[in-house]
Design brief:
The structure is a single chain. With 325 residues, this protein is an alpha/beta fold. The protein folds into two domains: 2-78, no CATH class; 87-317, Alpha-Beta Barrel (TIM Barrel), CATH 3.20.20. 36% of the residues lie in helices and 18% in strands. It is built from twelve helices and eleven strands. The chain has a nine-stranded mixed beta sheet with strand order 3-2-5-6-7-8-9-10-11. It has a two-stranded antiparallel ribbon with strand order 1-4. Helix 9 packs parallel to helix 11. It is globular, with a radius of gyration of 20 Å. The two termini are 32 Å apart. It binds iron/sulfur cluster (SF4) (2 copies).
Length: 325
Amino acid sequence: MKYQCCDYLLHEIVFDIFEVKPCCEASMNKESIKLIEKFNGIEFNIEEYLNKRQELLNSFKQGKIPSACKNCPLIEDKEWDEKEIYINRIIVANTPKCSCNCIYCVYTYNNPSNKEYFNKLKPYDIKPILLSLRNQNLIKNNFMLIVGGGECTEFSKGELEWLIYFTSIMKGKIQLLSSGIKYSESISKILKAGEAELIISPDSGTKKTYEKVKKVKAYNNVWNNIAKYIKAVNPMKSSVKIKYIIIPQINDSITEVKSFIKKCKQVHCNDIHIDIEHFWFKDNKDKPIPRRIKELVKLFKKEKAIKISYSAETEYWFKNEEELK
Ligand code: SF4
Ligand code: SF4
């Protein structure tokens, strides 16, 4: 049956601090869609999750797009294969603790004083939840486990290692998002021996801009750690992506991006990911793309020896433009 829906609702699950969601695409819309609200992580009821998923799916089938999904650019109009219920992307984002302090961080954007609260918040235990999904045969082989923010190198002892172990015994791939401030031997090991992608986002090519964006003094440390991780990579199976989140008026100068590209080359990075700051994007996504952002994308694209990838926001904005082609 052909209808408007998205792959995320069918096959992704996001474990956030207080809720379970089908996607992380909050920057596309003002409100976010939920599968389980007020989630405390103590009891994950698979039946409740599957029922809510089905309820949302039925709305899509009837052409009643939930308000949180209205105008989402990730909606596609096509035949959806629903025969098998399975998850192929799991996002673990239940631990907000992080010693970085990015100006765009979702935890502190509206209220910087939240930092202490989130740093002290005790996360729920994700392990029994993942095991119960596995026991119900809901996780597909080759799934991707994405370990999102806070900061995975600051998880309590053994937590990150357990997620790496779980992914490898399930024959999945792991994607780790890190500030890069703290070096992790476990991350280096999985980059060497497993299937992993590490994403670090310095968002700058100079110390001055790094400190403006991150509000911590760790510029040299981060680039040194990036260099160590890149040295550890087995390029047949793993990669390190260095991310540049374009933040208008903060890091969108040509000279900053040129310095960033230079730093990337110094550490032998061949994988850059471009994103646009999500709060700014939300307010501006229906306006024409600013000339400066087009210029920056062109600058990145000139680097033929470096693989350039784009966030969903960037792709959405540039979908009819030549710059991304
Ligand atoms: S339509 Fe968009 S917002 Fe709604 S579930 Fe899919 S990806 Fe998420
Ligand atoms: S690294 Fe992530 S979790 Fe940490 S402050 Fe930055 S955006 Fe927030």
